[in-house]
Amino acid sequence: MMVRAYIGLGSNLGDSLSTLQAALNRLHQHANISLHKTSSFYRSKPVGPQDQPDYINAVAELETDLSAVHLLKVLLAVEQDYGRVREAGLRWGPRTLDLDLLLYGNETIDLPQLRVPHPFLTEREFVLIPLLEIAPDLCLPQGERLSDLPVATAPHQLQKL
Ligand code: ROI
Q1: How far apart are the C-alpha atoms of 33 and 156, rounded to whole Å?
Q2: Which terminus in the chain has less CB density within 10 A, N or C?
Q3: 94 in ligand 1 pocket by Cβ < 6 Å?
Q4: How many helices (H) and strands (E) are present in the chain, helices listed first?
Q5: How many CB atoms lie within 10 A of CB 145?
Q6: Domains of the chain: which residue ranges?
Q7: CB 41 less than 6 A from any atom of ligand 1
Q8: 37-57 pLDDT, tens per residue?
Q9: Residue 90: is its pLDDT beyond 80?
Q10: Which of 52, 63, 39, 50 is nearest to 126 (CA)?
Q11: How far apart are CA 118 and CA 121, in angstroms?
Q12: pTM attached to this predicted model
């Protein structure tokens, strides 16, 4: 069974644009993943600690027959390949590549290593704005339309590249 999933991509170290493009290529080449749509790339100010470079963010829609947990493992492996070091104690710091599983079909998942929908999905314009670009009618598993969320309707700070 194929499931439609959405992932968020972010980077603020190194050549961020090339890194995001390479990560998308890697996912595209995966035998169990077909990449359907990718948003534009957006530049945004860091949310959280401000003493780090601006981010480049994007969102992608894919179809996969992998389980959510297996898909997460693939995302973590791609992060590793692009030099991401998840440092203990350093939360919300700069990163060469961050891949988040945002939505997986209509599922709600609450595991220690994986929460879907992504807990900050509804609050972060660097996720919501690119997501609405490629899926304007998207709804959360509970039925709420993303385009009705306050962040989606407020003026935003993202710069489309
Ligand atoms: N801020 C922006 N603009 N983009 C991100 O991808 C991002 N990722 C994060 C934190 C540090 C919360 N801030 C971010 O993990």
Answers
A1: 31
A2: N
A3: no
A4: 4, 8
A5: 13
A6: 3-160
A7: no
A8: 999 999 999 999 888 899 999
A9: no
A10: 39
A11: 5
A12: 0.93
